[in-house]
Known about the structure:
By secondary structure, the chain is an all-alpha fold. 65% of the residues lie in helices and 1% in strands. Among the domains are: 1-71, Arc Repressor Mutant, subunit A (Orthogonal Bundle); 222-439, Tetracycline Repressor, domain 2, CATH 1.10.357.10. It contains 20 helices and two strands. Helix 1 (24-46) crosses helix 6, helix 8 crosses helix 17 and helix 10 crosses helix 15.
Amino acid sequence: MSEVSGRVAPLYRRLPRGPNGMGGEKVARNQRTRLFGAMIESVSRRGYHATTVAHVVALAGVSRRAFYEQFSDKEDCFLATHDIVVARARQGVLDASRLQSGWAEGLHAGCEALLGDIAASPEGPRLVLVDSLGIGPRARVRMQLASLTFERLVACASQLAPGGAGFPPLGPRAVVGGVRHVLFIRMLERREWEPCTLTDELLDWISSYRIPAAVRPGALGLATPPRLPPAPAAFLAREDGRARALGSLVQLTLEEGYSRLSDQQIAQFAGISTEAFHKQFPSKEECLLAVLDEFFQEALRAVSGRLENADSWPQGVHLAMAAFLDHLAAHEALLRIAFINLFEVGPNMIGRMTTSVESLTKLLTEHGPPPRHGPRLTLEAVTGAVWAIIFGYVAHISSDRLSRLPCLVDHLTFTVLAPYTGPRAAVEAIQAARRSPRSV
């Protein structure tokens, strides 16, 4: 793409005016494809929010009228482009895996094709993994649907595995979440060339979640959740201007949505001046960061106590994960902000959120053995897996579903332990932890 004197040079040669031998449907399809390419190129260069319809139509070499015959607005075009990138990636994985005769070879070929395509042409994958964050609820739903598409691929591949060794119920979500996070970090940091070197490491990590057929299927069954009364967050209970500002942001975000808020509104609701607000926080983004940091620091303090009192490392992980989930379930408002409203902000904020989850992963694993599977990527991948499983529950706007978060303790403990101990030992450790009086 080139820009000369403020004008954008088109990526594609315009279709000739007048009769060109193409029917109306074929012309529309050609224009749609050009608009997809133009959206990818413009967003890659200047970001979604700085991209305009004028940029897209100029790059595509189509008229504004043709654009609006295809899409209602810029966001509609972006989401359709997102969908086509995901669909092509899925098809590439399927095509590569079908050319192989064995299950393991097919899995390797599919993963290699996906990572190779990302490294060779990163602009489309970056649009899906990075640029779609911070756009709004529709883009968040698209992200969920894209993840579900690949979760189904992983689940189907698992069913073909020899010996009946497959994934537990939430295994495909953990796998897709882990891989997605590993790729997101590299896209965010502009290390697009790395994915094609990670195939073997990622497949090794993925293999740690295949439970042998000899282990009974109900080994990681969901328990009835305990009744947890809502608990006030300690950092919001303090009597000072900072706490009032944090509480103001939390309440207004839940009532009106984060994107609609201004610094002045937050300060006014907190009963302080805008100047006093800015002495505490340069912007509402920094105020939101402070909410998330305080929320996770409280959670980590609850986790640390459980780890210190455990008889063994696996039991400590089980106890600590239970404490973490109890903390999340008892703070529903903060949980929704951390896992849902955060998508209104953008990729850098999502990166900050996953850094907080990584603090939990580091705390849980620092006294464990070295990872046996995918050691170079284990911490990153496990962080993404834990985040994806929790997000999958929180994203369903249902208080009853959120109250069941503590039921995930076995599954999340398995997600953490398996790459370090192997799947069989992880299941056995979880069963032993459940029998321990400390787990009651």
